[in-house]
Amino acid sequence: MSEPTFPIELTVNGVLREARAPARRLLSDFLRHDLGLTGTHVGCEHGVCGCCTVLLDGDPVRSCLTFAVTVAGHEITTVEGLAGPGGEPSTVQRAFHEEHALQCGFCTPGFLCTVTALLRDTPHPTDAEILEGISGNLCRCTGYQNIVRAVRRAAGEA
User: Fold this and answer.
1) Residue 63 contacts by C-beta under 8 Å, 6 or more apart in sequence?
2) Does the reported pTM lie above 0.85?
3) Boundaries of each 2Fe-2S ferredoxin-type domain copy (predicted)?
């Protein structure tokens, strides 16, 4: 017996999107498998690592803990939606590149979404605010120094 699906209409990266999904489909899986937006990564699947962080109406959320049906009618921004209209990298993306704030890159989409929201709310954060702001995102490669430098750089350019 097939699991019933429900219509989900939402705006993703500025584009109205529609698809059907079971009530239990996680937003991370909906974005990746139903909408083909594979920039959102799934790490721990428990909301601990932050790899799956996207912006829901501008606020960071763990897409691996959010059911897709609950975001119907809302606006989602994924890492694919952070770049400018011509595809030019955002200030945060550029700063991460310039400061070498990534190594394997698996955690990067979640960091980019988190930092984008952090700098919107706190345009000139202190080091303590930066550390608090990124504390929900885990990186196994970088040691965080370059990530913190990238946030500082992005704040200086914003």
Assistant:
1) 26, 27, 28, 31, 40, 52, 53, 54
2) yes
3) 6-82
